[in-house]
Design a protein that fits this description.
It is a single chain. Strands 3-2-1-4-5 form a 5-stranded parallel beta sheet, with helices on both faces. The longest helix has 16 residues, at 58-73. The protein has 165 residues and is an alpha/beta fold. Helix 4 packs parallel to helix 6 (127-134). Helix 1 (12-26) links the parallel strand 1 (2-5) and strand 2 (30-36). Helix content is 45%, strand content 18%. The protein is built from 7 helices and 5 strands; from the N terminus they run βαβααβαβααβα. It has one domain: Rossmann fold (3-Layer(aba) Sandwich), CATH 3.40.50.620.
């Protein structure tokens, strides 16, 4: 099994296309995962008000949004007849990925990287690098060629607005 960790608002499509090809070539099934993290000051049980999110908690909104995104990102696997299941973890992405890898014991981990260099990398850090240094399984990275993509979904924006007051 391959564990494929993605940020649906980042370079996820490039990652899943490469991971689907790798999984098909190796005859492996896939767990496609992402992590959600509530904004500082927003509890998981805070209720949303208005629009499509009325009466749902912040956690429910983010989990549903992440699950929907993972299902869309599952297309390259389905096209190649690779079995795929989805996992949404709560917490910081590095810890969530490392915990999933320890629990699921994949053959390898596949994740994306922006390939930042210099001062930008120093200040922003590198999720991929932290995972590479700490993972107990081989890690394959897929470099994004689309620059820094960071588009919040409507659900993420609505939950973030709770933190702003």
């Amino acid at each position: 099994m391959l564990l494929v960790a993605v940020d649906p608002q980042g370079c996820a499509w490039q990652v899943v296309e490469q991971a689907a090809e790798l999984a098909a070539d190796l005859g492996e099934n896939v767990v496609l995962m992402t992590a959600i993290e509530l904004p500082e000051g927003v509890g998981p049980d805070v209720e949303m008000h208005g629009g499509n999110f009325e009466g749902k908690t912040a956690r429910q909104v983010l989990v549903a949004d992440a699950t929907r995104s993972l299902d869309e990102l599952g297309d390259p696997f389905r096209r190649r007849d690779v079995a795929v299941e989805y996992h949404v973890r709560e917490g910081h992405c590095v810890e969530a990925v490392l915990d999933a890898a320890k629990e699921l014991k994949p053959r390898m981990l596949v994740l994306g990287t922006h390939g930042r260099k210099g001062i930008k990398r120093f200040f922003l850090g590198s999720v991929a690098e932290q995972i590479l240094r700490r993972a107990d399984v081989p890690v394959v990275t897929v470099r994004s060629h689309g620059g820094d993509i960071d588009h919040a979904s409507a659900a993420q924006s609505a939950v973030a607005a709770l933190a702003d007051g």
